[in-house]
Every structure is written in C-alpha cells, then in structure tokens.
Amino acid sequence: MKGDAKLLDVLNDLLADELTAISQYMVHSEMCEQWGYGKLHEAIEKQAIDEMHHAEWLIQRILFLEGTPVVNKLKKMKIGKSVPDFINNDQEAEADAVKAYNDAIALARKVGDESTAELLTKILKMEEGHVEWAEKQRVQIEQMGLDGYLSNQV
C-alpha cells in the first residue's frame, strides 16, 4: 500500500529520533552501570529497549507503506556527564518526541491514514510515560538531595 510521501518523510524523521534515543540511553545506562547505580542502569536500559521497539514498529510501518527506512541518520545526542544531566537531557528529548508524535498523528489523520495514527498514538503514550519517569526522578532528587537519590540507585 503506497503511503503519503510527506507522512513517510515524517516517519523516517521519527525513526531517526528513536535511533538517536537508543544510543543516548544506552550510553547513559552503561555509565550508570560503570558508576555502580544498578537500579538506574536497569531503568534507563529499559527505556532504550522501548525505543528499540518504537524503531522496529516505525520500520515495519514504513515498509508497509512502500517507503524506504532510513537507518543511517542520527540526530545530535546529548550525553550527560552526571546523573542529573542524563535525566534532564533524556526528559528534554522525550518532551520533543511527544510534540513530534502529536504532530505526526495529526498529519496521519489529515492524509486519512488511521492505522499509522493508531501506531503513533501507541508510541506517544509510551513516550509520555518516559517523560513522567524523568519528572519523578527530578522530584526525588529535589526532595532527597542528589546524594540521597543516588544512594537509592545502588
């Protein structure tokens, strides 16, 4: 089924975002592991795995719409130097993703592709969960202090 050209471009742009997020999260996750923050390592790694699923679903949809997935394009990564940097950078990226998915859903509906809109809505809900997770981490750091927060991540 031939998909709308503009929507295919947007799907490939979302794919680039997801591939970038995977890399950024994996680096942050491994840095946490290196520093001994096992709980944080696992939580961030889980988010990377979620992003891998998003990329997989986008690739499947692009192929279904007879497009060509572009997998060699990454956006600029923001690798943090500290745990608060990780959380801030990742939350910023997720907030951008929420906006991008909302825009893509509107486009999919405009061109009459409800199946793509449903897929993008599924991913959007997961991205909103990632934003919420980061917000909770920021609140915990604020309330416990960084030392208290990090001691709970060991």
Mean of pLDDT: 96
Contiguous helical run count: 4
The count of β-strands is: 0
Our count of domains comes out at 1
β-strand percent reads: under 5%
CATH class: Mainly Alpha
Q: Tell me the quaternary state.
A: single chain
Distance between the termini: 50 Å
Radius of gyration over C-alpha positions, nearest whole angstrom = 17 Å
- Relevant CATH superfamily: Ferritin, core subunit, four-helix bundle
Helical content (DSSP H or I, runs of 4+): over 70%
CATH-defined topology = Ferritin
Low-confidence stretches: none
Can you summarize the main beta sheet? none
**Backbone shape:** elongated
What is the succession of H and E elements?
HHHH
By CATH, the architecture is named: Up-down Bundle
Specify the structural class: mainly alpha
GO molecular function: ferric iron binding; ferroxidase activity; heme binding
Binding site for Fe cation 2: 51, 94, 127, 130
Domain Ferritin-like diiron: 1-145
Keywords: Heme, Iron, Iron storage, Metal-binding
Written description of the protein model:
By secondary structure, this protein is mainly α. The protein has one domain: Ferritin, core subunit, four-helix bundle (Ferritin). Helices cover 81% and strands 0% of the residues. It is built from 4 helices and no strands. It has helices at residues 5-35, 38-64, 83-110, 114-152. The protein is elongated, with a radius of gyration of 17 Å. This is Bacterioferritin. InterPro entries: Bacterioferritin (IPR002024), Ferritin-like (IPR012347), Ferritin-like_diiron (IPR009040), Ferritin-like_SF (IPR009078), Ferritin_DPS_dom (IPR008331).
